[in-house]
Amino acid sequence: MPAKYNLKAVQQYVQEWLDGNDDRMWFTPRRKSYGAVSFVCNEDDEIAQETIAKGFLKLNSDTFFNTQYLSGRGVAVDVYGLENYRRHNWYVKFYLIDEADDQCVASISFHPLDETMTCENGNVLAITFQGARPWKN
Fold first, then answer.
1. According to the model, what pLDDT value does residue 137 have?
2. Is 24 helix (H, G, I), strand (E, B) or coil?
3. What's the rounded Cα separation, in Å, for the pair 89 and 62?
4. Please, where are the H alpha helices in the chain?
5. pLDDT tens track for 87-115
6. Is the pLDDT of residue 81 over 90?
7. Cβ atoms within 10 Å of 127's Cβ, excluding its own
8. Cα 105 to Cα 87: distance, rounded to the nearest angstrom
9. Engineered SS bond to 104: which of 97, 98, 134, 136, CB 3.0-4.6 Å?
10. How far apart are CA 70 and CA 76, in angstroms?
């Protein structure tokens, strides 16, 4: 199954967020997104959010994993692997929020892979981060 969301459009919104448009990107609570990046990369939360955004710009169709649906909400989310970013392979999950003729990227997971990921096209991403995973608690 192809990705639900057009990756180039998602990346355009993320770039707009990096350029100062705060309405273009939203982060879920710290634990599942920027908290993991903050821990692994030893960055404060604001820099970790920037690191996530820059990671989004490196996503490509070769590491698309699947489209899932959030339980109870019916919202489609795309899942990608991000290969060798900041020395690790990452699990990236997001969706687009529609708001009055505009869209926003919702980053709901961004953390090192917990298990090997076989992408839709057969690319295999290995676990690269060894150590405590406080974002899992």
1. 67
2. helix
3. 14
4. 7-18, 34-41, 45-56
5. 999 999 999 988 667 788 999 899 999 99
6. yes
7. 13
8. 24
9. 97
10. 7
| Element containing residue 97 per DSSP (H, E) | strand 88-99
**Contacts (Cβ under 8 Å, ≥6 apart) of 77:** 4, 67, 68, 69, 70, 93, 94, 95, 108
- pTM for the model stands at 0.92
- Tokens read off for 94: 């997001």
Q: What is the mean pLDDT of residues 51-59?
A: 97
Taking the CA atoms of the chain, what radius of gyration do you get in angstroms?
14
Task: Name the burial class of residue 137, with classes exposed (0-12), middle (13-18) and buried (19+) by CB atoms within 10 angstroms of its CB.
Answer: exposed
Residue with tokens 């967020």: 17
Nearest alpha-carbon partner for 104 in 29, 18, 32, 10? 10
- Longest pairwise C-alpha distance within the chain: 43
- The 3-state DSSP composition of the chain as helix, strand, coil percent (nearest 5) reads 30, 35, 35
